[in-house]
Amino acid sequence: MTVDVAAVVVTYNSEEHVAGLLDSIPAAMGDLTYSVVVVDNGSTDGTMELLRARTDCIAVESVNDGYAAGMNRAVRASPEARTILILNPDAELDADSVPAMLRVLERPGVGVVAPRVREEDGTLSPTLRRGPTMARVGGLSFTGLAAFTERIEDPSAYETEHEVEWAVGAILLVDRRCYDAVDGLDETYFLYSEETDFSLRAKDIGWATVYTPDSGAMHIGGGSGESATTHMMKQINRIRLYRRRTGTLRAAIYYGLTVLTEMRRALFGHDRSRPTVRALLRPSLRPPMLNASDSILPR
Length: 299
Known about the structure:
The chain is of the alpha/beta class. The protein has helices at 18-29, 47-52, 67-77, 97-105, 176-181, 194-204, 228-246, 248-267, 273-281; strands at residues 3-11, 34-41, 58-62, 81-87, 91-93, 110-118, 128-129, 162-164, 166-167, 171-175, 208-219.
């Protein structure tokens, strides 16, 4: 039997939040048929015990081989579905939010739909992004100029439905045909940049990512925490993504600008930037799960 939506979640020490997400799903689906699969990437808290005690999801226990790998595993464990709903465990969906996204996804050429997301305090969460460019590597968002800013913070951009280059992957509805055409999420990133890569590769072959304010959700954020290691992974994966899309020469310049940006942040007291600079300059210090330690320019 084919369902309308296969909801997929990857947890990692998510005991505090995942119940809220699962509780929000039935009302969010409206009259749609759906399944819920949660892949746990080696939690050491009570996440798996919580999931096993529930009857509204299929829980899959896994080793931690990355967020993208967990998502792809959850899709494989799901029944056949027309769409895939990618969810972070620290998100909560509004009632009837998924049918609102599905109405947009059913338009020709739309492969990914992102809803309007709010923070836990009710304020707008700026989840929309422009594509990576050399001018946007320097963290110059304070200028407010689109040429230098990847994150879209202008509240007016969240008032109307429009195509975007990519959106933060906490809540995304994906056409299954698009997912298959792009061959799922790229597991080599392990964590971070996989949603950027997915939307950009989808756009390359004709599938658009569209934002709609008609669907709502909350994202608590920080469910897996941020550390020096995760900050390091973000910066390394941004360079890898840029290299894969533009080639070695341009990526070498992008790499250099990233090093300078992280040095500047370190000078201004950003503790997570100091180990990131060291890892960028000494590949042996990079997180081994990225498999990006064989050359100075991350592959």
